[in-house]
Amino acid sequence: MNAVIPHLEDDSQARLDALAAISQRLLDRCRANGASQAEVSCSEERGLNVNVRMGAVETVESNHDRGIGVTVYFGQRKGSASTADLREESLESTVAQACAIARYTEDDPAAGLADAELMAREHGYFDTWHPWGIDADQALDLALACEAAGRDVDARIENSDGASVGSSASLSVYANSHGFVGRDRDTQHTIGCALIAGRGDAMQRDGWYSTALAAEDLESAVAIGRSAAERAVARLAPRQIATGAYPVLFSAEIARSLIGHLLGAVSGGALYRRASFLLDSVGTQLFPSWLSIEEQPFLRRGFRSSSYDSEGVATRESPLVRDGVLQRYVLGSYSARKLGLQTTANAGGVHNLAVSANAGGFDEMLRGMGRGLLVTELMGQGVNNVTGDYSRGAAGFWVENGAIAYPVDGITIAGNLKTMFAGIEAVGSDVDPRSHIRTGSILIGRMTAAGSD
């Protein structure tokens, strides 16, 4: 990093103690009001975000937010209420509101806390707390340096969408009437830049960013600005391609959207509503036999590392896909009950996914494709989760003889996700570290691309 990171006076444990004490008082009030079960979530977040554009300051924002959510169950009737006010009368009112709502709702056979025996008993350390002692002036200096470095790369960079620096630190406590109390503290920091190359109708925009839990893991502001500029310039003078069926290589930062579509289709909410193209697919071969996807909730400095999910259920390392075969769904306790299954400790989402690679880095992936379309940007929302039909606007580069030949845009790529998953020929080792979905670039052997004709 090219910024000084001073020592911070860390009062996070004391603040967590205060949130845990509030949680216990609220649970006691829920019981006193007749609730058979209850759960409480308390959170606090502090952050700083700055934005600059064309060498001038645009915004400086500092936030200090907190929230308290109370959910009660009267048998299988559920009520929820929330507040950001820590005064005793407000907390009492929040519990009363939740209880009043529960008394007027109908029974839901799937309602209730996750089973007590599934609660996490151990709380691991995943190195997710790294406050960044950066003030507004230092953040602005970083953002200005980032944008300036990008604008200096090439004379064709004549405009900017700006550069930004953000830092946040969040504390959270989840407690329920099973006696479970979970305490988390996390930080996240980001530097980003978006630049515009060319003029008039020939303008092209692109950017780059780095995000991490610890500031020392960020790319330097100068490197981020230069990457943004190089990406914008590389897109100048795009062409179109003839409509046809071609190999398509999704760059790593775009490839994770494909895994996101898989997660949407195997999530409990889509399944019990029967709004998924992957109904009844556990045990089905969806991917090539060499491909596996593992959930890794205990990853050091992972974006979604945790010993428990948002219901307190103990997480565990487990395969989502093994040897190409779907092993399980992604369930919280409510959706699991609706489906007659057991929670997979995924209330609140997955906890870090690692997609196995069978190829080398990005350059090797290009050489392996030989000729086809490299996608670096997707547009639109043309994905039907019920049928799996996929159709999205795309931009990127045409590849000839295993090397980038020229930029392309105005393209629509289409297929069906089941066919696309089965048609994956390679996953690269060029993992994009900026997400909880950790995958390299993905090569699909054949997709329809609609171009100039």
Would you kindly provide a written description of the structure presented here, covering whatever features stand out?
Pfam families: PmbA_TldD_1st, PmbA_TldD_2nd, PmbA_TldD_3rd. Belongs to the peptidase U62 family. The chain has two domains: 12-233, PmbA/TldD superfamily (PmbA/TldD fold); 238-453, no CATH class. Helix 3 (136-151) packs parallel to helix 4. By secondary structure, it is of the alpha+beta class. It has a six-stranded antiparallel beta sheet. It has a five-stranded mixed β-barrel with strand order 7-12-13-14-17. Strands 10-9-8-11-16 form a five-stranded mixed beta sheet, with helices on one face. A hairpin with a 2-residue loop joins strand 9 (318-322) and strand 10. The chain has nine helices and 17 strands.
Question: Helix count?
Answer: 9
Count of structural domains: 2
Name given to the CATH architecture of the largest domain: 2-Layer Sandwich
Strand order of the main beta sheet, please? 3-2-1-4-5-6
Shape: globular
Radius of gyration: 24 Å
CATH topology of the largest domain: PmbA/TldD fold
CATH superfamily of the largest domain, by name, is: PmbA/TldD superfamily
| Average of pLDDT | 95
- The counted number of beta strands is 17
**Global structural class:** alpha+beta
Unreliable stretches covering 5 or more consecutive residues: 1-8
CATH class descriptor of the largest domain: Alpha Beta
